[in-house]
What does this fold into?
Amino acid sequence: MGEEVKLFAVWGSPFSRRVEMALKLKGVEYEYIEVDLQNKSDLLLKYNPVHKKIPVLVHNGKPIAESVVILEYIDETWKGFPLLPKDPYQRAMARFWAKFIEEKCMPALFKCAGTEDREKAVEEACELLKLLENELEDKKFFGGENIGFVDIVADFIGGYWLRDIQEIVGVKILTRENLPKLCEWSDEFVNHVVIKENLPPRDKLIAYFRTRFGPKP
Amino acid sequence: MADEVVLLDLYVSMYGMRVRLALAEKGVKYEYKEEDLRTKSQLLLQMNPVHKKIPVLIHNGKPICESLIIVQYIDEVWKDKAPLLPSDPYQRAQARFWADFIDKKLYDAGKKICTTKGEEQEAGKKEFIEILKVLEGELGDKPYFMGERFGFLDIALITFYSWFHAYETLGNFSIEAECPKLISWAKRCMQKESVSKSLADPKKVYEFLVVMYGL
It folds into this structure.
């Protein structure tokens, strides 16, 4: 039976890129559907009526929403290149850090791009990333020798999103002085053979961030 | 080698109850340690340094945190009895999606009911009922959320049932009047021994909230 895999995504979204990274790492072919967030299609609203957001993966007509839920689904459905470890304790740790990134790091980092109480936001973000860096220890990736679940969920931090936002906004969060190991990890991340082909076009991303976060004329 | 299982918890916590329920379903023996959240134990701070929260399961000395992550861990370790997640990946994804939905929405809406008055409280009640109605829709006519068998998603939601009495009293409304099918499901779950012995007494939950919020 033919596999039909569709992904509703947005070119610049770290959330939908996570799903693309997982599919590419596993060699799964899929149809990419770009969503206009200002003008959501009936199809998207049908596939994700609860949150009305991207990404949504549709596998043989059945939709799955929420990027971290989608990642686990992909890992359980396509066995090549496992993203989560086999050992239950290691799996629990991976899920814990993925949740930490999603629920603590991401909101804190977005706050740094805002204009309210920026200094405090940056301090908080740095503290959270320090905890993440401690978890990395001396590993090349959070997944060990190779990319895994946590690395993918941390794409916003490892990819160009954070680096470019912090430069445009004028804050120092992920720097070699503050977070040397995490910086090293992010270099490995963007240079990974599959990941580097799956990041949003950098100039387009920078232009978008300038419009959204840059100083107003 | 015998398994050593310790649970750091709070009697009234709906999150802690999820873990107790999963352990009961699997028939796992464990040592229960009640935490006082105003003076957290050294053990809690050591076992959950990142969040400093309960529940924490300590299995042979190794800590696992976050209730739904703990429940999945329990399901994977004690896999020979009472599977909590379905075996089909799509069904598993649905269970995780809805459990995530509950975690993102329900507690905060409930908190508004407990801690506000007037228009704000009315908004909280409306939000709370809307969330329950969406879940009720997902349940449909099935006996349990994933079908014939009690499992992960039932565990994620049923523990909030022990807080319904408190929400209803503080908000002066009836959840059963708005969501009869959901209450029917809850009563069905309560007939299971693992559920009735793992959920806190609703009166004690109410008393706890009165003290905590100074009501």
Observations:
- The interface with chain A takes residues 50, 59, 62, 64-66, 69-70, 72-73, 76-77, 89-90, 92-94, 96-97, 100-101, 134 of chain B (CB under 8 Å).
